[in-house]
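<backbone_tokenisation>
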Amino acid sequence: MLLKPTFFRKNLISWYLVHKRELPWRSTRDPYAIWLSEIILQQTRVAQGLPYYERFLRAFPTVEDLAAASEEKILKLWQGLGYYSRARNLHFTAKYIVDELHGVFPTTYKELLTLKGVGDYTASAIASICYNEPAAVVDGNVYRVLSRVFGISTPVNTTEGIKQFKALAQELVDEKDPGTFNQASMEFGARYCVPQNPDCKSCIFNSICDAYASELVGTLPVKLKKTTVRKRYFNYIVVLSEAHKTILQQRSGKGIWQQLYEFPLIETKKDLTYAELIVMNEFKELSEELCVEDISLYNDTLIIHKLSHQHLYTRFWIAESNGFDVKASFPEKTEVAIAEIEEYAVPVLIENFISEFSVFKL
């Protein structure tokens, strides 16, 4: 169909101009604001990301403000969004733009790709919206629309699929107004060409949609199965002293939740009973050094916290102590007043426990 790309482009933009949501990042071409919105919205729904975007702009109105902030403050504001490497990359790139680029964002797709945490999608979005460069965006929503309308069964999470969909999107992009076209593509996939049960009978593309004609809407796009999910067993020891203090430690390394705080953790290969926990050398050492007098299980039912490639099976153990000196015994741990615990950036798994456990509500 020679007219298919033209029909698609024209009808998509016409639909968008009538049905688009009024979102704060759509009323600006400031690259800082667009960059911030795109990083927050990676792997995050608009409804969830919008409050974070607004909080970040209030706290850091300019890239200079973000660069000058502490990593702890940024992680605390980010708390609950997940994929915390996005926040660390955000901070790193802000400092790079301020220190190395004198506060000026790159103005082309290729230059934007050199920024840490900025990939093809984000670079295309910023380049098209802010600088009118015809660089097509391809995200999960765009994959879905293109695979269905153009009948493409190549798996979207393969090298071949990524190249094929990017080339098609680039062919379709409106060179006069690429920013509007890109936002229209994402909006249509997010709000109309949805994953389950889209209203194909009323769709603006049903006359040219290959998937609709072939009754393949439910099977497209194709995505290869992910790798096996890893199971991990976490035992958090929540130490409470008579002086109304507890213990937190900061995660290091390149694993999950880097630089976030958590309670002392004992990770095991299986779920533990009380009898199995108290005879472990790791627990004995912790218990002795922190003067633990009694320990009890908080949650009888395992809390299952699901991440992209791993599931955390978690128990919280409440350990009562008559006092401790973490500086002498455990210098990597931090003594925290219970009244101040909410000031620390923690994973959502820990945040949920803190909000539920009555001691932390006092």
User: Anything to note?
Assistant: DSSP finds 16 helices and eight strands in the chain. The chain has a mean pLDDT of 92.
